[in-house]
Amino acid sequence: MARPTIDDNEEKPLDPAVEKVRRKLVRFVAINLGLLFLALMAVLAAVVYKTGAPSEIVSVGGNEAVPSPAEGGVMAGDIILPAGARLVSHSLSGNRITLEAELAGGGRALFLYDIAEKRIIGRFDLKSE
To answer: What sections of the protein cross the membrane (predicted)?
Structure first.
Protein backbone atom coordinates (compact mmCIF):
# COMPACT_ATOMS: atom_id res chain seq x y z
CA MET A 1 0.00 0.00 0.00
CA ALA A 2 1.33 3.39 -0.92
CA ARG A 3 1.78 5.92 1.80
CA PRO A 4 0.06 9.24 1.17
CA THR A 5 2.37 12.07 0.50
CA ILE A 6 2.15 15.44 2.17
CA ASP A 7 0.70 16.94 -0.99
CA ASP A 8 -2.29 14.55 -0.90
CA ASN A 9 -3.23 15.58 2.70
CA GLU A 10 -3.36 19.29 1.96
CA GLU A 11 -6.68 20.67 0.80
CA LYS A 12 -6.71 22.01 -2.67
CA PRO A 13 -8.43 25.36 -3.22
CA LEU A 14 -11.98 25.07 -4.50
CA ASP A 15 -13.08 26.24 -7.86
CA PRO A 16 -14.48 29.84 -7.52
CA ALA A 17 -17.97 28.73 -8.62
CA VAL A 18 -18.02 25.91 -6.04
CA GLU A 19 -16.75 28.29 -3.34
CA LYS A 20 -19.57 30.71 -4.17
CA VAL A 21 -22.18 27.93 -3.82
CA ARG A 22 -20.59 26.78 -0.51
CA ARG A 23 -20.81 30.31 0.91
CA LYS A 24 -24.48 30.57 -0.13
CA LEU A 25 -25.23 27.26 1.60
CA VAL A 26 -23.44 28.33 4.79
CA ARG A 27 -25.38 31.61 4.81
CA PHE A 28 -28.65 29.72 4.16
CA VAL A 29 -27.98 27.31 7.06
CA ALA A 30 -27.04 30.18 9.41
CA ILE A 31 -30.21 32.14 8.59
CA ASN A 32 -32.45 29.07 9.01
CA LEU A 33 -30.84 28.13 12.33
CA GLY A 34 -31.35 31.71 13.53
CA LEU A 35 -35.04 31.64 12.54
CA LEU A 36 -35.50 28.25 14.18
CA PHE A 37 -33.91 29.56 17.38
CA LEU A 38 -36.21 32.61 17.38
CA ALA A 39 -39.28 30.44 16.84
CA LEU A 40 -38.25 28.13 19.68
CA MET A 41 -37.75 31.11 22.00
CA ALA A 42 -41.21 32.46 21.06
CA VAL A 43 -42.83 29.11 21.89
CA LEU A 44 -40.98 28.86 25.20
CA ALA A 45 -41.94 32.45 26.07
CA ALA A 46 -45.60 31.66 25.33
CA VAL A 47 -45.48 28.55 27.54
CA VAL A 48 -43.87 30.48 30.40
CA TYR A 49 -46.39 33.29 30.01
CA LYS A 50 -49.36 30.91 30.03
CA THR A 51 -48.15 28.99 33.08
CA GLY A 52 -47.23 32.13 35.02
CA ALA A 53 -50.33 34.20 34.29
CA PRO A 54 -53.25 33.66 36.67
CA SER A 55 -56.14 31.99 34.93
CA GLU A 56 -59.21 34.13 34.48
CA ILE A 57 -62.45 32.79 35.85
CA VAL A 58 -65.18 33.32 33.33
CA SER A 59 -68.54 33.81 34.95
CA VAL A 60 -71.66 32.91 33.09
CA GLY A 61 -74.42 35.51 33.27
CA GLY A 62 -77.05 35.01 35.94
CA ASN A 63 -74.65 33.79 38.63
CA GLU A 64 -75.06 36.79 40.88
CA ALA A 65 -75.27 36.39 44.63
CA VAL A 66 -78.47 35.08 46.14
CA PRO A 67 -80.63 38.05 47.15
CA SER A 68 -80.75 38.43 50.90
CA PRO A 69 -84.12 38.61 52.64
CA ALA A 70 -85.26 41.65 54.62
CA GLU A 71 -83.71 42.10 58.04
CA GLY A 72 -84.26 39.03 60.15
CA GLY A 73 -86.52 37.54 57.50
CA VAL A 74 -86.29 34.21 55.80
CA MET A 75 -86.56 33.66 52.06
CA ALA A 76 -89.62 31.68 51.14
CA GLY A 77 -91.24 30.52 47.96
CA ASP A 78 -92.70 27.56 46.12
CA ILE A 79 -90.99 25.39 43.53
CA ILE A 80 -93.65 23.57 41.58
CA LEU A 81 -92.63 20.20 40.16
CA PRO A 82 -94.82 17.99 37.96
CA ALA A 83 -97.54 15.97 39.71
CA GLY A 84 -96.22 12.73 41.23
CA ALA A 85 -92.56 13.81 41.09
CA ARG A 86 -90.33 12.82 43.99
CA LEU A 87 -87.21 14.85 44.83
CA VAL A 88 -84.06 12.67 44.71
CA SER A 89 -81.26 15.20 45.18
CA HIS A 90 -80.44 18.88 44.95
CA SER A 91 -77.44 21.14 44.47
CA LEU A 92 -76.89 24.89 44.93
CA SER A 93 -74.57 27.03 42.81
CA GLY A 94 -74.73 30.81 43.18
CA ASN A 95 -78.38 31.76 42.83
CA ARG A 96 -79.39 28.54 41.07
CA ILE A 97 -80.63 25.26 42.48
CA THR A 98 -80.49 22.03 40.53
CA LEU A 99 -83.19 19.56 41.57
CA GLU A 100 -83.11 15.92 40.47
CA ALA A 101 -86.59 14.44 40.55
CA GLU A 102 -88.00 11.01 39.89
CA LEU A 103 -91.10 11.50 37.75
CA ALA A 104 -94.39 9.66 38.12
CA GLY A 105 -93.75 7.69 34.92
CA GLY A 106 -90.50 6.27 36.33
CA GLY A 107 -88.11 8.59 34.47
CA ARG A 108 -85.81 11.16 35.98
CA ALA A 109 -85.33 14.83 35.19
CA LEU A 110 -83.17 17.72 36.30
CA PHE A 111 -84.86 21.03 37.02
CA LEU A 112 -82.80 24.23 37.10
CA TYR A 113 -84.41 26.84 39.38
CA ASP A 114 -83.27 30.48 39.57
CA ILE A 115 -83.75 31.90 43.08
CA ALA A 116 -83.48 35.53 41.99
CA GLU A 117 -86.14 35.14 39.30
CA LYS A 118 -88.15 32.63 41.38
CA ARG A 119 -88.86 30.36 38.44
CA ILE A 120 -87.69 27.15 36.79
CA ILE A 121 -85.37 28.11 33.93
CA GLY A 122 -84.56 24.66 32.60
CA ARG A 123 -85.66 21.04 32.51
CA PHE A 124 -83.45 18.19 31.37
CA ASP A 125 -84.84 14.68 31.06
CA LEU A 126 -82.34 11.95 31.96
CA LYS A 127 -82.35 9.04 29.53
CA SER A 128 -80.04 6.07 29.03
CA GLU A 129 -79.01 4.67 25.68
So the answer is: 28-49
In whole angstroms, what is the distance from residue 7 CA to residue 30 CA? Answer: 32
Find how far residue 80's CA is from the centre of its chain.
Answer: 38
Question: Would you give the end-to-end CA distance of the chain in angstroms?
Answer: 83
Burial of 54 (0-12, 13-18, 19+ CB in 10 A): exposed
pTM beyond 0.85: no
Instruction: Quote the CA–CA distance of 110 and 107 in Å, as a whole number.
Output: 11
Residue type, 49: Y
Q: Nearest 5 degrees, angle CA 51-CA 55-CA 61?
A: 160
**Predicted confidence band of residue 61 (pLDDT cuts 50, 70, 90):** low
For residues 76-98, give the mean pLDDT: 87
How many angstroms separate the CA atoms of 46 and 39, rounded? 11
Domain parsing of the chain, residue ranges: 16-53, 86-126
